[in-house]
Amino acid sequence: MSKADLKDFDDHTFLNFRNYIYDNCGIVIKEDKKVFLGSRLRKRIKTLHLTGYDEYWNYLINNSQSSIEKYNLFEAITINETYFQRGNNHYKILADYVLPEFSLKHGNQIKIWSCGTSTGEEAYDLSMVSLEYEKDHPELKISIIGTDVSKRVLEFARNAEYADRRINQLTEYQIHTYFNQISPENSTLPYAKKVLSVKPLLKEKVNFQYQNIMSDDYILDVDVLFCRNVLIYFDKQTQYEIMQKFYNSLNHGGYLFLGYSEVLNIMPEKLVVCRFPEGTIYKKEF
Ligand SMILES: C[S@@+](CC[C@H](N)C(=O)[O-])C[C@H]1O[C@@H](n2cnc3c(N)ncnc32)[C@H](O)[C@@H]1O
């Protein structure tokens, strides 16, 4: 048993980890989150058979495996909570206002980016909206890119099997049209009560890839950008820098969807606020 006891997690090492995480992943771990971070790091310490936080810090910084361990650290600290139909008012705005506008004014190809997509539910929700819309507008070709900093969640997304609380909000129609029910024993979720596997037609529209929002490697020529429940983990300065890059990623006339609690009070001069009965989104008009 590892000796990674919280009482051995001294303030100096805690600060080292906080700074490292902020510099490399942009995520702010607040001063009062020592217990949270300690318990997340403990899992890595145990897996690596190390004796405690100090040794893990040295391993992370000095080891030849440092760059690999950096990703394992990201996996350990990111919060991946998501489920199908989360914030589905946004999907209504997309279907009722945004896609019709594209049908009229823009070309036939629409690129949607789900940034911080986690285990893929948001990207597949967007795929469902797109397929429904394309039924009446066969001239449109909508593609979706789902990205995340966690390779583990991307693997889950590509595997495309979902169960329990993740699928509770799906309608009967959506389940019937876009999913196959498979027996839990034949799935990667053997302990679940009910497992749904995403049908190929839904999968084909989505491409998952690794992307760190802290890098300069952003998807370009994006028409619709969803980045929900991601920015809350970053401080104001980092949010501001991300907004600049999102702005550059978007095509003129493109739309940005943020999480409900993520009010955009930066770059108001560049992104126009669009209020709908179902919620607020942002448009790159200039
Ligand atoms: C709470 S989930 C949000 C999932 C989905 N967008 C939703 O609203 O349900 C936040 C996601 O952001 C990802 N994330 C955190 N830091 C990131 C970074 N630096 N670059 C890219 N993704 C990041 C996490 O891995 C996690 O999957």
Q: Overview of this structure, please?
A:
It is a single chain. The chain is α/β, with parallel strands linked by helices and 286 residues long. It folds into 2 domains: 6-77, Chemotaxis Receptor Methyltransferase Cher, domain 1, CATH 1.10.155.10; 89-158 and 198-284, Vaccinia Virus protein VP39 (Rossmann fold, 3-Layer(aba) Sandwich), CATH 3.40.50.150. It is built from 10 helices and 10 strands. It has helices spanning 11-25, 34-47, 53-62, 66-77, 89-105, 121-136, 151-159, 172-178, 200-203, 236-249, and strands at 109-115, 141-148, 161-163, 179-182, 195-198, 206-210, 222-227, 250-258, 271-276, 279-284. The strands form 2 sheets. The chain has a 7-stranded mixed β-sheet with strand order 6-2-1-7-8-10-9. It has a 3-stranded antiparallel β-sheet with strand order 3-5-4. Helix 2 (34-47) packs across helix 4 (66-77), helix 3 (53-62) crosses helix 4 (66-77) and helix 5 packs across helix 6 (121-136). It starts with 10 loop residues before the first helix and ends with a strand. 34% of the residues are buried. The model has no long low-confidence stretch (mean pLDDT 91). Residues 25-27, 78-82, 86, 116-118, 122, 148-150, 153, 211-214, 228-230, 233, 259 line the site of S-adenosylmethionine.
